[in-house]
Amino acid sequence: MAGKVVVVNEANWEQEVLNSDIPVLVDFWAPWCGPCRLLAPIIDELAVELEGKAKVAKLNTDENPNIAIKYGIRAIPTVMVFKNGKVVDTRVGVQPKEVLKSLLV
Fold first, then answer.
1. CATH code at 62?
2. Which Cys pairs are S-S linked (predicted)?
């Protein structure tokens, strides 16, 4: 899946996010969330621009509540950056693309 956003869930979370050998940006979102829809095109652009350097993933919090609870997601969209299986940065709300990109490179 070249330059595509990876859809993560409880089944593939460990493999795609925690065990990734490159940084992973995870967008915690839900279909009913207006600001999440504003962030979606930015997330898509980052997936293309950072291909090979970082992984860009989306997690639907409605479908995967256990992960959302584990990471203390209280508002969406929330973007978390994982490196070596650990959270290294968290941003809540719609963020400019350059801000998100700077967290990864």
1. 3.40.30.10
2. 33-36
